From TrEMBL, chain A:
PANTHER family: AUTOPHAGY PROTEIN 5. It comes from Taeniopygia guttata (Zebra finch). GO terms for biological process: aggrephagy; antigen processing and presentation of endogenous antigen; autophagosome assembly; autophagy of mitochondrion; axonal transport; blood vessel remodeling; cardiac muscle cell apoptotic process; cellular response to nitrogen starvation. The lineage of its organism: Eukaryota, Metazoa, Chordata, Craniata, Vertebrata. The keyword Membrane applies. It is found in: Cytoplasm; Preautophagosomal structure membrane. This is Autophagy protein 5. It comes from the Eukaryota. Involved in autophagic vesicle formation. May play an important role in the apoptotic process, possibly within the modified cytoskeleton. Its expression is a relatively late event in the apoptotic process, occurring downstream of caspase activity. Plays a crucial role in IFN-gamma-induced autophagic cell death by interacting with FADD. Belongs to the ATG5 family. Residues 11-104 form the Autophagy protein ATG5 UblA domain. Keywords: Acetylation, Apoptosis, Autophagy, Cytoplasm, Immunity, Isopeptide bond, Membrane, Ubl conjugation.
From TrEMBL, chain B:
This is Tectonin beta-propeller repeat-containing protein 1. Gene3D superfamilies: Pleckstrin-homology domain (PH domain)/Phosphotyrosine-binding domain (PTB). GO terms for cellular component: autophagosome membrane; cytoplasmic vesicle; lysosomal membrane; nucleoplasm. CDD domains: PH1_TECPR1. Residues 1-19 form the signal peptide. It comes from Taeniopygia guttata (Zebra finch). The keyword Hydrolase does not apply.
Length: 275, 1199
């Protein structure tokens, strides 16, 4: 009988095989070989690509190097989205490895945020956690923690330390016994086809009668187009961490077990492959 | 499994008594519904009430342990040359049948049952056990003359003899309301009662279960019921207590608070209540808080007093304590109540005056005794629940009313013969019209003007409540209309409960005519159905509530405040029945998809590089370390725990301690996979813990570290525990074979035995055993190899192991997510008040300069005053104040003093001429609340427990479990199986004296030790006969007083009070009691014999351990079928250990099964070894290294 804790491990240790190729217009001194890497689904691009940067900087001239940025099939990849989300949104159902193009010039100011150092990533990560806790517990749990606990969350993510991270994160996944779940579920729904970045609304995990809301209830409430089949056929896939959970899955369980380390449920709505 | 809970008692306006459990959600009707009640006053074990006949009744809960009282009488005989011993006695002799002193005449047949609520258990029989020694047949003891010392041996000069006859009577009226029968003379009889309050059980512990019962009679007099205690639940007589005025209401707290309300509106307070004067001495008067409105109702707790004045305002009395029971001033509270009641830990309930709902005072904490706000309890009644679900199917009101004309005149007015408020007692049948609204639903049009309204006490109408008034008016209207077929008045009679108005009688109407209504299915259905007319949310209306038996734990939430609507709960249950199938479906799909994803995304790409390399994780901190060299003291060090993954993927950890030694930086390191145990050490000043390895265990010199705060220490302990378990690949719960142990501090440790521990060519040295901590605080744990594990706390609560792991400070993934529950324990902290006698002032606290501190610990070396003595650690908190402990060993006088010639010596309770010093022990209770994999098994509190050791081959369903309650009763738990380790009920096994130790062996041999130190064997215990048939008295070895017995597969070992371990020789299948005792060793404080007949003990003093540390775990080596006593000792973890149980370890050696050796007579083959083993008390095969610091080490692990 598999334990719920195994889901946590599976989510944490998910990896995406990626092939990094340098943009052909970048000026290099030598031929730039593509670089293959297993990226953690739960982390952020700029956090885990030191090796990539080093690899390509070796073949480039110093003065040509400015801030690194990534794109996939023309779309600049937002580093502040988790890697797994980016893959599910843009490249799932494509052949592996995931081919990402590396740029060092012409930073697309309109599309991407700058990321000068790891501190920027840390600040963004902690801000997401705080926002999630505000939704879940009115920020009570996160505010009760000490600075060193916050640091431990970040270090756990940065160093890929599952136990270190969950030693603290489990506190953020608890709720008072008289409730049956969080106050609101921290989630964001992404659709590659729409203009706006994501959908985020207030959503309670427990109905007034005490029943648990499901993934289907959530989607029906905030993004009905995602699931109402037009002309009778389901055109979209609802994807979290590369899998398609049943719509009957309780949203409270999903939030506890399949959130990203920033405590948000990042859900991708993508067109269903026709084959 | 039953959860620990307590009950809130209440009476509704119809006189029905309900209870609401702290873990329940619905009011449950009291089991005995014969009577209607006016008042109830509850404590935990029973409830006293005044029924509508103004008589007092008591309701004692039934339990597994019966209430038995032993009656005894002595038959005395004198020897004369003619007839030998016979009943002809000298005229100066005592009676032929007498009490133990000989002064009272007590013939056998003069004993009668004190009341109809008792029954005799059996006939008279002779007691054949005197002072631990069995007497000859007939039970006679002989002496030279009356009175003197009697012995069981007849001597040449024994001229008299006597024998003791005993008979037990049993209280049988449990779970029913038992009327208190008055045996007083008619002129002494109290007049009918009006109010009752019970309490006072905390004043003293003697006799067991004593209660103060106070009652107020209709004429305003106060009566006290004498001698109410556990084995006399009804008390004996009423005695009158004079009061300065007419009393209308009284309230008694658990301790020494007693307040009463006078008719004039003041309150009176009883002064001088203590253990010598439970009735108190005098009264003081306290004025009402508001001059216009006198006090109407008062309720007291341990040290709080609440009152309600005539204008329904609620007041809290400030400044109440033991020295000043009157308090100082009143504070007004928000809210208007009819009455209030104070519960066990100062929690407060009230009945609202408008809606008659029960409110709970939220926010009452020790620092905020007046609480914050009133919250309504919305729990419905059990009977309602079954109906509300079908509320839609409820037939229309008309179905309850037929056209039968009920004869109103048959209504009997019970109780008062003189209904003074006859204004409200209509003589016409329509008086009942309370449920007229029910009829109004579709009754005749004449009633159409009545709308749904509350059935209201007509007396209420006087207080100007609109609803009451309208009800009354409507009622009057109804009274006028009496159409012939009017079902309304004929439907039923309701009787109305009394309001708090003093000196008012209430009309009591019976509901007997109910039975006449043929259209009704049942009383309950009707009333519920009728009330449903008011809406499904209408709550029951209450007249009285008593919280004296209710303990609301601030930690556990109550389910009283949210009403699950009947419909949704059924929907929920419906959805619950669906979801198991569904949860399986969606969860299965998630697991399936995740594994598919892993395959898809990883399988072909394992050769790719990882984006993040596995790095070494380091946790550093600053701690203090008890340094290795002299002078030993604490020094600041930096500590680092490094976790790294080796090349084979295995993870390992090292702990580094960096310190400065003479200006040089040095470090010591420990591989965590070598650490055998990490244990918290009790230390006054520091939060410290000790780290042991096998080597350090041998030397009794662990690494001692201390943290600045308790939280930091727990963080490190949790992390180190987890890392040790990881490096040994130990995860999940302990197996059924685990060995459990408890330290003196109460911490629980568990170890997985390897197969080589007990058998094999090379027995594993027990200093290599790895112990991990499990949450909880207990005094002892017993287990067996089928996974049934029970623990007993210091407060004698029984706990069942749930199969979890972790808990306590162990958090996160090292702790199981479920199966961890709150666990608490209460223990006493003792300090001593010491005094020395001097010719000038007698005993005083001024002693000699060399004396101990005048307030000290038991040894006298440490000063411990009442104010500076703190609970053992910040996790503990005080739950009582300092009280004089009269139960100190050696006895005390009436004020608690013990006398001796000098400090220290043995103390006795009476003062002699030679006693120049005296001391008095003060105790204070402290409580720890932690969590762990333990669930309480109420209700019996236990002293000892034993579970049958099984071998792996056993497939018996039932597991035999015997226990001893903290009162010394021997109990047998029924229904224990592997699936239900808590069992179902207790079976009481009768004994003639309290017992203190019990053990059951693998073949159902049950041995036990009684309080007088003698041993008993229970015959014929088997699965078909779980309680056996009778006790056989076994003489103890060499007149030693025994204190513990443990039976393994076939070996029986006992321990006496001087630390000697004895083995029972001569046990054969035909003679399971054995024949003689063999001395094995001394210096032992506790032992455990397991299913392989292995012997483990806690030894007192072991080489290398310091004089103050007690309790080292030792393993008897060389135990073989031919050598059951073993040969020598192997030393394990210690000191500081209190208890160990190895009865779960049935892992046999891989080669060769354990042979059946039960029949062998070991005595024959072991003569030669006896001398050897006697001499080898502490001789160890491995010489212990003596640590360099043998002197007093204040940081040794001690109790």
């Amino acid at each position: 009988m598999t334990d719920d804790k195994d889901v946590l491990r599976d989510v944490w240790f998910g990896r995406i095989p990626t092939c990094f190729t340098l943009y052909q217009d970048e000026i290099t001194e030598r031929e730039a070989e593509p670089y293959y890497l297993l990226l953690p689904r739960i982390s952020y691009l700029t956090l885990v690509t030191d090796k990539v940067k080093k690899h390509f900087q070796k073949v480039m001239r110093q003065e040509e190097v400015s801030e690194i940025w990534f794109e996939y099939e023309g779309t600049p990849l937002k580093w502040h989205y988790p890697i797994g989300l980016l893959f599910d949104l843009h490249a799932s159902n494509t052949a592996l490895p995931w081919s990402i193009t590396v740029h060092f010039k012409n930073f697309p100011e309109k599309d991407l945020l700058h990321c000068h150092s790891k501190d920027v990533i840390e600040a963004h990560f902690m801000a997401c956690i705080k926002e999630a806790d505000a939704l879940k517990h009115k920020s009570q749990v996160i505010n009760e923690m000490q600075k060193k606990d916050h640091k431990q969350l970040w270090m756990g993510l940065q160093n890929d330390k599952f136990e270190q991270f969950w030693a603290i994160n489990r506190k953020l996944m608890e709720y008072p016994p008289e409730d049956n779940g969080f106050r609101y579920i921290p989630f964001r729904i992404y659709q590659a086809t729409t203009e706006r970045p994501f959908i985020q609304k207030l959503f309670r995990p427990i109905a007034s009668g005490g029943q648990l809301h499901t993934l289907g209830d959530l989607l029906k409430d905030v993004c009905p187009s995602a699931i109402t089949p037009k002309d009778g056929e389901q055109k979209t896939q609802v994807m979290i961490h590369g899998i398609e959970p049943m719509l009957e899955t309780p949203i409270q369980w999903l939030s506890e077990h399949m959130s990203y380390p920033d405590n948000f449920l990042h859900i991708s709505i993508i067109p269903r492959p026709t084959d | 499994m039953a959860m620990p809970s307590s009950l809130l008692w209440a009476v509704d306006i119809f006189g029905r008594v309900y209870t609401l459990s702290t873990v329940g959600q619905y009011w449950e009707l009291c089991k005995d519904t014969q009577l209607e009640f006016k008042r109830v006053s509850a404590v935990k074990q029973c409830c006293w009430g005044i029924a509508c006949d103004h008589q007092v009744y008591t309701y004692v809960f039934s339990g597994d342990v019966p209430i038995r009282y032993q009656e005894e009488t002595y038959e005395n005989q004198r020897w004369n040359p003619v007839g030998g011993f016979c009943e002809k006695l000298l005229p100066s002799d005592r009676w032929q049948w007498s009490d133990v002193s000989g002064l009272k005449h007590q013939q056998l047949d003069s004993f009668t049952l004190p009341s109809p609520h008792w029954e005799w258990e059996s006939d008279w029989y002779v007691d054949e056990n005197i002072g631990g020694e069995p007497t000859e047949k007939g039970g006679w003891t002989y002496a030279i003359d009356f009175p003197s010392t009697y012995t069981k041996d007849k001597r040449w000069n024994s001229c008299v003899r006597r024998r003791r006859w005993i008979r037990y009577r049993r209280y049988k009226s449990r779970d029913v309301w038992a009327k208190i029968v008055s045996q007083d003379e008619p002129d002494q009889l109290p007049d009918p009662f009006n109010d009752i309050s019970i309490g006072g059980w905390e004043i003293t512990d003697e006799p067991l279960g004593r209660l103060s019962v106070w009652a107020v009679s209709l004429q305003g007099r106060v009566w006290y019921r004498e001698n109410v205690c556990h084995h006399n639940p009804e008390g004996s007589t009423w005695s009158l207590v004079t009061t300065p005025g007419e009393v209308v209401q009284i309230s008694c707290g658990p301790y020494d608070l007693l307040w009463a309300t006078l008719w004039e509106g003041q309150a009176i307070v009883r002064e001088g209540i203590d253990r010598n004067n439970p009735q108190g001495i005098s009264w003081s008067i306290v004025e009402s808080p508001s001059s216009e409105n006198g006090i109407m109702h008062v309720s007291v707790g341990v040290d709080v007093v609440w009152c309600v004045t005539k204008d329904r305002k609620v007041w809290f009395r400030r400044g109440v304590n033991s020295h000043n029971p009157c308090g100082t001033s009143w504070i007004e509270m928000v809210g208007e109540m009819m009455m209030v009641t104070v519960g066990l830990n100062n929690q407060v309930w009230g009945i609202g005056c408008d809606d008659r709902a029960i409110y709970f005072r939220q926010g009452v904490t020790p620092s905020e005794l007046s609480g914050k706000t009133w919250k309504a309890i919305v729990s419905g009644r059990e009977s309602d629940r079954s109906q509300t679900g079908s509320s839609t199917s409820l037939l229309s009101a008309g179905c309850f009313f037929t056209d039968d004309i009920q004869n109103q005149t048959s209504a009997v007015i019970q109780g008062d013969a003189d209904p003074s408020s006859d204004t409200e007692l209509p003589t016409s049948p329509a008086s009942t019209a309370l449920l007229g609204a029910a009829a109004a639903g579709d009754g005749p049009a004449s009633q159409a003007d009545t709308s749904a309204r509350l059935p209201v006490d007509p007396l209420h109408a006087e207080q100007g409540e609109a609803t009451a008034a309208s009800a009354r008016n409507d009622k009057d209207n109804l009274d006028m209309n009496k159409p012939p077929g009017n079902p309304n008045p004929s439907a039923e009679l309701q009787w109305i409960n009394i309001d708090l108005k003093e000196a008012q009688k209430h009309p009591v109407l019976s509901v007997s005519s109910f039975a006449d209504t043929s259209s009704l299915s049942s009383l309950g259905a009707f009333s519920v159905g009728a009330e449903d007319q008011y809406g499904a949310d209408e709550h029951p209306l209450w007249a009285w509530v008593s919280g004296g038996g209710c303990l609301v734990d601030l930690h556990s939430p109550l389910k009283w405040f949210s009403a699950p609507s009947g419909l949704s709960s059924s929907v929920q249950s419906l959805s619950l029945s669906i979801t198991p199938a569904q949860t399986a479906a969606w969860r299965k799909q998630i697991f399936q998809q995740l594994s598919e994803r892993t395959k898809r995304e990883l399988e072909n790409f394992r050769h790719y590089e990882q984006a993040i390399e596995q790095s070494v994780w380091v946790k550093t901190g600053a701690l203090q370390w008890w340094r290795n060299w002299k002078p030993h003291k604490w020094m600041d060090v930096r500590v680092a725990l490094e976790q790294f993954t080796g090349s084979d993927g295995m993870r390992d950890s090292i702990l580094f301690i960096y310190y400065m030694y003479h200006e040089e930086k040095k470090y010591i390191h420990v591989f965590l996979n070598e650490v055998t145990i990490i244990v918290e050490v009790l230390n006054e000043a520091k939060h410290s813990f000790a780290l042991y390895t096998p080597e350090r265990t041998k030397q009794r010199w662990p690494i001692r570290l201390a943290a600045a705060t308790e939280q930091e220490m727990h963080d490190w302990l949790s992390l180190l525990n987890m890392s040790c378990c990881e490096s040994r690949r130990i995860q999940g719960p302990p197996s059924h074979h685990a060995i459990w142990s408890v330290t003196c501090k109460g911490d629980i440790f568990v170890s997985e035995p390897s197969p080589e521990l007990e058998a094999g060519p090379q027995q594993m040295p027990c200093d290599q055993m790895f112990w991990r901590q499990v949450g909880g605080h207990l005094r002892l744990i017993e287990s067996n190899s089928r996974g049934v594990v029970w623990g007993i706390g210091h407060d004698h609560t029984a706990w069942l192991y749930t199969g979890g792991y972790g808990g306590g400070f162990i958090q996160g993934l090292a702790s199981s997510a479920d199966n961890i529950y709150t666990q608490s324990d209460v223990k006493c902290v003792y300090i001593y008040e010491n005094q020395r006698w001097n010719p000038v002032t007698g005993y005083s606290s001024r002693g000699l300069p060399t004396d101990r501190y005048m307030w000290s610990d038991a040894s006298g070396l440490q000063e411990c005053t009442k104010t500076n003595t703190k609970p053992p650690s910040p996790q503990w908190s005080w739950v009582s104040d300092w009280y004089i402990d009269f139960s100190a060993a050696g006895g005390t006088d009436r004020e608690g003093w013990q006398y001796a010639a000098d400090f220290p010596a043995s103390y006795h309770g009476h003062k002699t001429m030679k006693d120049f010093v005296r001391r008095r022990r003060w105790a204070r209770k402290c409580k720890i609340v932690t969590n762990g994999p333990w669930l309480e098994v109420p209700p019996v509190t236990l002293w000892d427990i034993s579970i049958i050791p099984s071998s792996d081959a056993d497939d018996e369903e039932a597991v035999a479990l015997w226990a001893i309650s903290d009162k010394g009763d021997v109990l047998c738990r029924l229904g224990v199986t592997q699936q239900n380790p808590a069992g179902t009920s207790w079976l009481h096994v009768g004994t003639d004296q309290p017992f203190i130790s019990i053990s059951i062996g693998a073949f159902y041999q049950v041995w036990a030790i009684a309080r007088d130190g003698s041993a008993f064997y229970r015959g014929s215990v088997s699965p078909n006969k779980p309680a056996g048939d009778c006790w056989y008295h076994i003489p103890s070895p060499q007149k030693q007083k025994l204190k513990q017995v443990s039976v393994g597969r076939t070996s029986v070992f006992v321990l006496d009070k001087n630390g000697n371990l004895w083995y029972r020789q001569g046990i054969t299948p035909s003679y399971p009691q054995g024949s003689a005792w063999d001395h094995v060793s001394n210096n032992i404080r506790k032992m455990s014999v397991g299913p392989l007949d292995q012997v483990w003990v806690i030894a007192d003093k072991v080489q290398g351990s310091h004089s103050l540390s007690c309790g080292t775990v030792c393993h008897r080596t060389g135990v073989q079928p031919l050598e059951p006593k073993g040969l020598s000792w192997d030393y394990g973890i210690g000191g500081g250990w209190e208890h160990i149980t190895v009865r779960g370890n049935a892992t046999e050696a891989s080669r060769g099964a354990v042979p059946d050796t039960t029949e062998e007579n070991p005595a024959a083959s072991k003569e030669g070894e006896d001398e050897e083993s006697k001499g080898k008390t502490e001789h160890s095969k491995t010489p212990l290294m003596v640590s360099e610091s043998q002197e007093l080490d204040r940081n040794s692990v001690n109790c």
